[in-house]
Structures are given as structure tokens and as C-alpha cells.
Amino acid sequence: MRQRLSSEPDRYRGRRRVPTPPRSRYAAVVTSAFVGAGVVALGAGALPDAKSVSPSVLDELKQASITSQDVADRAASVDKPSRSNARDSQAKRDEVWLLPLQGYDFKSPYGMRWGKLHTGIDLVAPEGTPYVAVHDGTVTKAGWFGGYGYAVIVKHADGSEIIYGHSSEVSVHEGQQVKAGDQLGLVGNTGHSYGSHLHLEVHVDGQPIDPVPWLDVRGVNIQLQIDTFYSEVAAS
Prior knowledge:
Blueprint: H1 23-43, H2 55-94, E1 105-107, E2 111-113, E3 116-118, E4 121-124, E5 130-132, E6 137-144, E7 150-155, E8 161-170, E9 177-178, E10 183-187, E11 197-204, E12 207-209, H3 211-216, E13 220-221, E14 226-227, H4 228-235
Antiparallel strand pairs: 1-4, 2-3, 4-11, 5-10, 6-7, 6-9, 7-8, 8-10, 8-11, 11-12, 13-14
């Protein structure tokens, strides 16, 4: 072999030689690419030849699919009771009926009085005592209402209405949605009233009825000042 003179140009100077990968590394690259192609084929629904994919890879893919389905099933089972509980909570909310106020004296029941029909009941309490909605509904009247003085009328989902009369002031406005227990106003002595009290009147189909038995079947005993809702809370 002729020895290269120092004056001859070096044809390889400045060039980088790319080393040939070892056989083992080349095999690993080819194997990874092949397995990746097998996974894509499985995802597309095309099952590769059994000789092409390692059984352990197939087992791992199958286990991953089972785990994913198990997680989805558990998520669905957790969500189902949540929706059921929400419906149950709303159903219980719809059943809440309360006393309109606490610490009153039951006076003047529904019926004839002084030759005229007294269309409600009177609950005597100090002026300024807060009173609340007996049940959920929409405020259809809030203000001066003739002989009722300052009054609030709440209409319920079943079409029934309750009039709260002779207030010293009202705390709501017409069109407002209220829940059982929301404050409606303060007991007073306005309108055709003989003293500080809350006049409670129930209308069904536009006609006044006796509030005592009507509320009693809904768990509210006006005469004994007991309502089922708070009795159940105290018992629990």
C-alpha cells in the first residue's frame, strides 16, 4: 500500500462517519416497531397473526381492556346512586310543610263568627314576630290587601294558596319563589284586625277551606303547634 504524502489532500477530513448499530440494538428497534404495529392493528379491530405478536403482549392488551371497562363500570355505578339521591332529596323537599311561626296562641278558628264566615284561623303573637312560608311556592301578592291589611299570598305547585294577613310589614315581593321556612313578613295589626296576630287562610280551587284539617293531613298540627318535619329532625 502506498503511503499518503503529507502534501496530499485528505479526502475524508471534516466528514463524520456514522457508526453501524450493533446487531442487538438493530433487532430491538425492529421488534419495537413490529409490536407497535400490532397494537395499532388490534385497536383497529384487525387481529395480527399469532406468530407476529408475543403472547405476553396480547395478555397485557387484554388486561388493559378489562381494567378500562371495570373503571367505566364503577364510575357508572357511583353516578347512578348520586342521581337517585338527588331525586330522593327533591321528593323530600316537595313534602316539607311547616308551622308558619312559633310560640303563638291559637284563637278564632275557621267558621261562623258574629253572623259571618271567618274564612281562616288567627294565631296570636307579639307584633314584629317573624312568620314563614308553610310550603314552597310563588308569591302572588305582597302588600296592602284590603281588610287583610298588609298580606302575602303564596301559591303552591298543586294550585292551593295560603293568605298570610294583618302583617306589620312584608319581606318578599310578587313573583318571588319561596321555600318552606323562608321568612315572608312580620306579625302585625293592620287591616280589619282586633289585635296583633297572623291570619292564616287556605284556598283550594279558589274557595276558602278550614286550614286545620287540611294542614293536618300534611303533617302540620296547628292547634298543637307540631309539624312532622321538625319532629323527624329532632328524633334523628
